[in-house]
Each structure stands twice: as C-alpha cells, then as structure tokens.
C-alpha cells in the first residue's frame, strides 16, 4: 500500500462513522438509561492508580445528549487533564467528539497547514475516546452521582 493510499484510508469517512457507532455503544454501557441533566458518572480504573474518568451530562435535546468527559490520572503538574465534549446522536446511534481541551473548531480535514492541529486530528480524538471507553469498560468500576 502506498503512502497516499494509507493517508486516504486514515481519512475514510466510513471508518470514522463505524468508530463513532462503537463509541455510542460503549457510552451506553457505561451510562445509566435514566441519565438526566447534570448526572455524573465516575469510572475508576481498577489497576491500582488514582485514575479514571468523569462523565457528566451537560445538555439533553430530543435526539442528542452532550457529555463532558474528563480523564484524570496521576500525572506531572505541567500535563493538563484531558477534557472533551462528546455529542451522542440517538437517532443515528453515534457518539462524536465535538470539543477537545477547549478547542471548539473540529474540522473533518484541515485545509490549511497549522502548527496547532494535525490533518487527522478529528480521527485521533475519536480514537482516543474509543481507547478510553474501552479501557473503562475493561478495567473500570462506575458509580453514578445524582445531583438534586
């Protein structure tokens, strides 16, 4: 496979959609079916470190939920915690990262070169979400905190 074919495959929309569909299923397995606004789910990883993720429902519309996911762990002070916003589309059965560490612009493919973003950044964010959710399902224990 040539380099250009590899790049095209990396930006394959069908692959991104299937990953978003898998992330939807993973999130539903972690969240209670009765998730309401400002409900918070804490997933603690069981491998002995003080690490995990916090999932908070920020917005609910008829067909979507907007979640805030914060991945925290023992890390150096200079390394910021990872925060992302994920939109769940219930009608399409997909979950997509729409914001990464307060960066609100998430294009499908960058048209101009930027030192701040990679051409496949959207793909990378959704793959990170996939890895994080898979790790949480395999090595995590979740607790639901209801805010009244």
The tally of helices reads: 3
Q: How large is the share of residues in beta strands?
A: 25-35%
**End-to-end Cα distance:** 55 Å
Helix and strand content put the structural class at alpha+beta
Give keywords:
single chain; 148 residues; alpha+beta; 6-stranded antiparallel sheet; 3 helices; 6 strands; 30% helix
Account of the 3D structure:
The structure is a single chain. The chain is of the alpha+beta class. It has one domain. The chain is 30% helix and 30% strand. The chain is built from three helices and six strands. The chain has helices spanning 3-10, 13-30, 121-139; strands at 40-45, 52-60, 64-72, 82-89, 94-100, 140-145. It is globular, with a radius of gyration of 16 Å.
Brief characterization of the structure:
The protein has three helices and six strands; from the N terminus they run H-H-E-E-E-E-E-H-E.
Task: Compile the SSE list and pairings.
Layout lengths: L2 H8 L2 H18 L9 E6 L6 E9 L3 E9 L9 E8 L4 E7 L20 H19 E6 L3
Antiparallel strand pairs: 1-2, 1-6, 2-3, 3-4, 4-5
């Amino acid at each position: 496979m040539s380099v250009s074919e590899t790049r095209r495959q990396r930006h394959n929309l069908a692959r991104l959609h299937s990953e978003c569909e898998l992330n939807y299923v993973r999130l539903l397995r972690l969240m209670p079916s009765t998730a309401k606004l400002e409900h918070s789910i804490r997933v603690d990883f069981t491998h002995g470190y003080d690490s995990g993720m916090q999932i908070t429902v920020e917005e609910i519309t008829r067909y979507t939920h907007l979640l805030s996911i914060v991945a925290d762990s023992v890390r150096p002070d200079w390394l910021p915690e990872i925060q992302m916003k994920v939109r769940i589309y219930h009608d399409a059965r997909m979950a997509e990262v729409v914001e990464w560490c307060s960066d609100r612009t998430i294009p499908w493919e960058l048209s101009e070169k930027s030192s701040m973003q990679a051409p496949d950044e959207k793909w990378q964010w959704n793959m990170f979400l996939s890895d994080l959710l898979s790790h949480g399902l395999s090595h995590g224990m979740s607790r639901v905190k209801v805010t009244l």
